[in-house]
Write the structure tokens for this entry.
Amino acid sequence: MSFLDNISKTIGQGIDRAKFEADKFQKVNQIRSELSELRKKIDGQRLELSDKATELYRAGQIQSLTLGELIQNIDALRAQITLKEEELKASQVVAPPTPPTNTSPSSQSVPVSVEPPTQPFPQPTPPPQEAAAPASATKACPHCQSQMPETSLFCPGCGARVSQ
Ligand SMILES: [Zn+2]
């Protein structure tokens, strides 16, 4: 009986623990999102401030070298953005690379395939004695003068045994 009590107690503690963790997680997330909201608001105000300052500076109502420098930096970066945007547009418009145009008519008929010509039938494995012999090592049949590999035991022409 106390054993079962212990189990239910443990489960109860586990649920409490999970709930506590979930609540904590939710609260932390809540605070984090509030913080990022506040930071976003500050960023927005800073942007507005810099826009107003720029406006006033350009209107000659603020005399500040530092402000002028910052505004020039921003102008330079904006110019870079404009260039990059043009570059992006240009690279999106460009057609896929085309092969160089052929000027000679003969090269146009050459197929672009690099694959070797396919063989209609799989090559049968040559008999071992033919495979072992180099192409130049041949001998003539003493009976019918047929040429055969040096290692052949029988003449392919007359069937006579030609081995030594
Ligand atoms: Zn022969």
